[in-house]
Design a protein that fits this description.
The protein has one domain (2-112). The longest helix has 30 residues, at 83-112. It has helices at residues 2-23, 28-44, 48-55, 57-60, 63-81, 83-112. α2 (28-44) packs across α5 and α5 runs antiparallel to α6 (83-112). It contains six helices and no strands.
Amino acid sequence: MDYVRAFIVGGLICLVGQILIDKTKMTPARILVSFVVAGVFLQLLGLYEPLIKYAKAGATVPLTGFGSLLARGAYKGATENGLVGIFTGGLTAASGGIAAAIVFGFLVSIIFKPKAKK
């Protein structure tokens, strides 16, 4: 049942993104940033944590989950280190995912020889 809940919630988040792409004039970059910011606000309102408990990877893998992770990390950093923790906590919490994105992006660029868009 975990797979079904993850599929449904993750699919609904992706559906919202697709609707924004199709029906608005927002650029993909603005949509991605909006998803991260939405994840932060939902986490601050206490709405995203129950969604994570319900859908697990269906809520943590999309970009809204990244925003939630940044917010949780900033809160934890602020409680442990004060003002400095606000800035360092989010990056500390997300450092594994950020490092993986850099490493895998580098490996893919070596394998597939990227080209500039024309």
